[in-house]
Amino acid sequence: MPFSIATWNINSVRLRMPIVERLLVEHAPDVLCLQETKVPDELFPEKAFRKLGYEHIAFHGQKGYHGVATVARRPIELVEKRRFCEIEDSRHLSVTVRAGGKAILLHNFYVPAGGDEPDPVINRKFKHKLDFVAEMNAIRAEHDEVSGSVLVGDLNIAPLEHDVWSHKQLLNVVSHTPVETENFEAMRRAGNWADLM
Q1: CA–CA gap between residue 12 and residue 24 (Å, rounded)
Q2: How far apart are CA 107 and CA 94, in angstroms?
Q3: Which residues pair with 148 in a beta bridge?
Q4: How many CB atoms are located within 10 Å of the residue 123 CB?
Q5: Do the Cβ atoms of 177 and 185 come closer than 8 Å?
């Protein structure tokens, strides 16, 4: 039986509900992971998702910024809303979902963008991003309780040369600097993650 996961930085779920609804009707993924939902938990548009058959909902939001949500047509169970860098900024959510008789641990991330200046000494946003990715090293692909794990989200890092239009021209641009790509690759290896792209 096929199983599909969609992931999308929605940049305000309430503002973009009409196109979210279109995606769910036209493509009907089993699970939809959203990032940058920009809504506190009490105002998340649960009714709109339930009306479309996405009865199972987990969210980790806040007013105005950030936020992640996972909605599904099949039961999900909240595992964790992890706080990174001792900051309450709603950037992670993990759930378990069953597919083909197996339990899958699904991590939904919204990694900090990092601002414009790729220097952690003068740019606290870039430092936050690097620290956040370093803490992601603790997230592992293998767990005893599940058959497998999936990590999705807006990761705000283009790790490979072919992920960008010009590797050489973007080496000093936030999202593709060597320190970001090397830290991201270290996180991927530490967690034993396979990059499906």
Answers
A1: 16
A2: 4
A3: 104
A4: 16
A5: no
The whole-angstrom separation of Cα 82 and Cα 7 is 19
How large is the greatest C-alpha to C-alpha distance in the chain, in angstroms?
51
- Residues across the chain: 197
Q: Domain 5-190: which CATH class?
A: alpha beta
Share above pLDDT 70 across residues of the chain, in percent, rounded to a whole number:
99
Q: How far apart are CA 111 and CA 152, in angstroms?
A: 11
pLDDT digits (tens, 9 = 90+) for 119-128: 999 999 999 9
Using CA atoms, how far residue 38 sits from 1, 18, 63, in Å, is: 34, 16, 6
The Cα–Cα gap between 23 and 118 comes to: 35
pLDDT of res. 148: 86
pLDDT of residue 76: 95
